Amino acid sequence: MPGPTMNLRIYADEAALLAGLQRRDPDACTCLVQRFAPQVYAHALRLTGAPDLAESILQTTFLTVCDALSGLDGISSLSTWIDQIALNESVQLLRRPTPQVARDNWEEALRPDRLPPQRVAWAPDPLHTALEAELRAEIAQAIAALPESLRLVVLLRDLQQRSTEETAAQLGLSAGAVKVRLHRARLRLRAALSRYLV
Question: Which one of 11, 32, 97, 191 has the fewest CB atoms closer than 10 angstroms to its CB?
């Protein structure tokens, strides 16, 4: 049975919602999550390409948001503030090293008597699916290896598909600086991914 839904109209706009959060109105936090969760999830899914990682970013973003509610003074835009927190959470996730599994463990796990019965049909082209997953992992690793000043521009412009002006406003840069950083980042990514760009 689905949980109760909140009437989002009780806060006419972001300013009213922000005022509700500042006076610790319990409905305000619920309204905040319902209003911004789809946006955060969509950005995280576009960034990672993996629903489970996007869910993780969504959860940690709103945990961080709820912890930071006491410091809301001086925030002009809830949307920008939440997007910045989600971006930081995404960057942190990309920085984490991917766990490596020893080959001995693979051989043990892949013994025929240890495999579950096949219940899911293979994708139409398993090789293509595997290569696509490998490329996605390589791209994420290449983005994570960029200096933070370049990585943030790539995340906002290319993955979240923000305009140059929105990116500049969020990062406190000029539009020209955003364009220069994006160009440098793309050159580095092209070099890092050159074996895939044949």
Answer: 97
